[in-house]
Design a protein that fits this description.
Number of domains of chain B: 2
Largest sheet of chain A: 3 strands, mixed
Radius of gyration of chain B: 23 Å
Helix content of chain A: 40-55%
Number of helices of chain A: 7
Keywords (chain A): Membrane, Transmembrane, Transmembrane helix
Oligomer: heterodimer
Largest sheet of chain B: 4 strands, antiparallel
CATH architecture of the largest domain in chain B: Up-down Bundle
Structural class of chain B: alpha+beta
Strand order of the largest sheet of chain A: 1-5-6
Distance between the termini of chain A: 38 Å
Pfam families (chain A): PqiA
Radius of gyration of chain A: 22 Å
Order of helices and strands of chain B: HEEHEEHHHHEEHH
CATH topology of the largest domain in chain B: Butyryl-CoA Dehydrogenase, subunit A, domain 3
Organism (chain A): Palleronia pontilimi
Largest interface: A-B, 75 and 75 residues
Protein name (chain A): Paraquat-inducible protein A
Strand content of chain A: 5-15%
InterPro entries (chain A): PqiA-like (IPR007498)
Order of helices and strands of chain A: EEEEEEHEEHHHHEHH
Strand content of chain B: 5-15%
Shape of chain A: elongated
CATH class of the largest domain in chain B: Mainly Alpha
Number of helices of chain B: 8
Number of domains of chain A: 2
Strand order of the largest sheet of chain B: 4-3-6-5
């Protein structure tokens, strides 16, 4: 991916040339500017990605966020996997997997945590992103509380673990395969698609561009 | 400035703190030092989070404490007909390996033993090295920090494996799999270690890099 060098602030104060930004990882100070199409601005010292705008990113991000919500609804409640062995069978949805810890006392907390990590937080993040970006994409002022919404969405980012769940499924399938025959339900494929959509959406979002848009389009 | 750069004569970097500014770690905007909250995104501003190390150590201690029972108690209770077996994390991996699924056994061992223990050591070491400059180059320490931040979440794999197996393998009298108490403490350990890594302020790594001039 092409990158361009951000222009650092020289030792003595420069004349103002665009907004000043500092790398959140190493505090190096730069003059912000929009890199060329497809380019990214990396911190010269620690190589943290500072600015990486994509053309039409707001609309595409919204479309992908809505896709995430729809797919997650199906992926949660449709049959995910079914096992068959010697005439006995059992099917489980992702919802069942989240509720697997319900039977034993304090393990309920774990059920709640698993449901949050693989279903609720990814959906909540998609909703917060749509709430933040939809007015901006239409060229309007942000909705009330848009800043808080986007802040929450960012705080929740490490806790959205759908892609880790998919690897967990792969491991579980190997464990179960010598015990019984496994059939894949529609939700299995929806969840696989979901993970790809989540990764695509993450790659589209440039935090700096979104904060900048929230700032400049603020209702006065 | 642009032609200075094309001449290969890059000016030295200046930090926000050098210029009397405080940076927002969320939206990267800078404000005069002493500003309390970022007016753009509403994040609390601190130039260097000096109390972050206390939070790192506290979360890390809880994470390590939770990891001990996670290895002593069973993760899974497997019942096939009338025989029940209880497997801890290590026992489960050994059983997988003896059944020929060596690759999966390695995935489990890496995600549930190597990564958590490596993370405890790495976070503790990063926290110690902040007050001991010169122990390792900032670039390498920052790489380590990024690795810990990125990889921490993946330890949750084993908890999800237990959740899927417990939901799926419920075949009346023939076979059933149920979660053991270790699943709970293991999940707690992962969560607290993630909080420890998030509490660390990586800018403290670079403060020891005063004479840095980019190549």
């Amino acid at each position: 991916m092409p990158t361009s060098d951000p222009s650092p602030v020289a030792q003595t104060s420069d004349p103002p040339a665009g907004e000043l930004i500092a790398c959140p990882q190493c505090d190096a100070l730069y003059h912000a500017f929009e890199p060329g199409p497809g380019e990214r601005l990396l911190c010269r010292r620690c190589h943290h990605v500072l600015i990486a705008p994509r053309t039409g990113a707001f609309i595409r991000t919204i479309a992908l966020a809505i896709t995430i919500m729809v797919l997650m609804l199906g992926a949660t409640f449709f049959p995910f996997l079914r096992i068959n062995t010697s005439g006995l069978s059992n099917a489980a949805s992702v919802f069942d997997a989240a509720l697997a810890f319900l039977d034993g006392g304090w393990m309920i907390a774990l059920s709640f945590a698993v449901a949050s990590l693989i279903v609720l937080i990814p959906v909540l993040r998609a909703m917060l992103v749509v709430y933040t970006l939809a007015p901006l994409a239409m060229g309007r002022a942000p909705l009330p509380g848009a800043r808080t919404a986007f802040r929450w969405s960012e705080d929740l980012r490490p806790w959205s673990m759908a892609e880790i769940f998919v690897i967990g499924v792969a491991v579980a399938l190997v464990k179960v395969s010598d015990l019984a025959k496994v059939e894949y339900g529609p939700a299995f494929w929806m969840f696989a698609a979901l993970v790809i959509v989540i990764v695509l959406q993450e790659g589209l979002m440039c935090r700096w561009t979104i904060w900048k848009a929230l700032e400049t389009n603020r209702p006065s | 400035m642009d032609h200075m750069e094309s001449a290969g004569n890059k000016p030295p970097l200046v930090t926000a703190r050098d210029e009397g500014l405080v940076a927002c770690t969320r939206c990267t905007r800078v404000w005069p030092i002493g500003t309390q909250t970022c007016a753009r995104c509403g994040t609390d501003l601190v130039s260097r989070d000096t109390r972050s190390l206390q939070r790192v150590w506290a979360y890390l201690a809880v994470g390590i404490i939770c990891y001990i029972p996670a290895n002593l108690y069973p993760m899974l209770r497997t019942r096939v007909l009338f025989s029940t077996s209880e497997d801890t994390i290590i026992e489960g991996a050994i059983e997988l390996a003896t059944h020929g699924a060596l690759g999966i056994a390695i995935v489990i061992l890496v995600a549930s033993v190597l990564i958590p223990v490596g993370k405890f050591v790495a976070i503790g070491w990063l926290a110690v090295s902040v007050s001991r400059p010169g122990s390792m180059e900032p670039h390498k320490r920052h790489k380590l920090y990024e690795l810990v931040e990125f990889i921490g979440r993946w330890s949750m794999i084993d908890v999800f494996v237990v959740a899927i197996l417990s939901a799926l393998v419920q075949l009346n009298f023939a076979a059933s799999i149920n979660p053991g108490p270790a699943a709970f403490t293991f999940a707690l350990s992962v969560i607290f270690t993630m909080l420890a890594a998030q509490s660390f302020d990586p800018r403290m790594i670079w403060d020891q890099d005063r004479d840095y001039t980019p190549a």
